[in-house]
Specification:
The chain is built from 12 helices and 11 strands. It has 310 residues and is α/β, with parallel strands linked by helices. It has an 11-stranded mixed beta sheet, with helices on both faces.
Length: 310
């Protein structure tokens, strides 16, 4: 049986008000508050730790992920859950003790979070700015789920043993700040698993060439057919030919995936030197990662925090 948020005091003790990082206390099963009277409700098992004036606000992508939660699959099928997680993450997690404090920052629909739950990790906190996504993870995992903004993580500094941020912070309006928050909540000696979009990759080049045309065609009804045929149509064909091993998805979901890749403009691409500098600026020492070259769509690094955050 899944524990409620009130039954997990070890995790709750790490969480804070997003306004000022004040500690929380439980008023009842459905409400937490601070000594200053800030109130944070629980929605369908998900603890809301977003500033009141930001709840439901748009972070610059027209609430795209609220309408298009990603990574949806049959969560009752262990094989399908396993297939949705890349080897990089599996190899990383294989070295992580099952009782570690782990933060999945930007958990989406639960692709990685639910995998960790399946594998028996006991202290996973799944954070996402999409309330719908956080509710989905809460329904399909044993994780502690929090509705949160990763630009202002509602967590005490130096709290988690491991932080996972895979394909997330480049979709925020301030990626350096999002990365800094991931690093701030790590304990000294803690490890960060990070994936970021690579500028010098086929996808990076396509986004600024082919993608520019597709985004232009989407702006007017008279030209939208270009994106439908040469954008979504090509994406569906490419997926059918080169990714036939993946489960078939409804057209609506494929449309969301295509729009996430080429139409939604809130994305930042990074060069290798820039990623390394951002990590160094946050007292992170790179331990290993995949060699990032032309064929790789994302930067991948595991790094260790060398100094406590103030």
């Amino acid at each position: 049986m899944k524990l409620t948020v009130s039954q997990r005091p070890q995790i709750t003790s790490l969480l804070r008000s997003p306004e000022n990082l004040n500690p929380l206390k439980m008023t009842n099963e459905n409400l937490f508050e601070t000594e200053k009277g800030e109130k944070y409700p629980v929605y369908d098992g998900v603890l809301c730790l977003i500033k009141e004036n930001e709840r439901g606000a748009d972070l610059g992508d027209s609430k795209f992920y609220e309408e298009n939660p990603f990574g949806i699959r049959n969560w009752n099928d262990p094989a399908e859950v396993e297939a949705g997680v890349e080897n990089d993450i599996k190899e990383f997690l294989a070295k992580v003790p099952k009782d570690s404090m782990i933060a999945d920052v930007g958990c989406g629909g639960g692709r990685v979070s639910n995998y960790m739950s399946l594998k028996g990790y006991k202290n996973v906190v799944s954070f996402d700015y999409s309330l719908n996504s956080a509710k989905m993870v809460n329904s399909n995992s044993n994780n502690y789920c929090v509705w949160a903004n990763n630009l202002d993580m509602p967590v005490a500094s130096n709290s988690f043993d491991f932080v996972i941020s895979t394909g997330v912070i480049h979709h925020t309006p301030d990626p350096p700040r999002a990365l800094s928050e991931c690093c701030r909540i790590l304990k000294p000696g803690g490890l960060l698993f990070l994936k970021l979009r690579n500028l010098h990759s086929p996808y990076g080049y396509l986004f600024y060439s082919y993608g520019t045309l597709m985004r232009w065609s989407e702006k007017k009804p008279g030209t939208k057919w270009i994106s439908e045929i040469f954008g979504l149509g090509v994406y569906r064909l490419t997926r059918a030919v080169f990714y036939s091993h993946l489960p078939k998805r409804p057209v609506a979901e494929l449309r969301g995936k295509y729009q996430n890749l080429f139409i939604k403009g809130l994305i930042t691409f990074y060069t290798t030197p820039r990623v390394k500098k951002m990590l160094a600026d946050n007292n992170m020492k790179i331990l290993y990662g995949r060699k990032v070259g032309f064929t790789h769509r994302q930067h991948f690094y595991v790094s260790e925090k060398t100094k406590a955050s103030a």
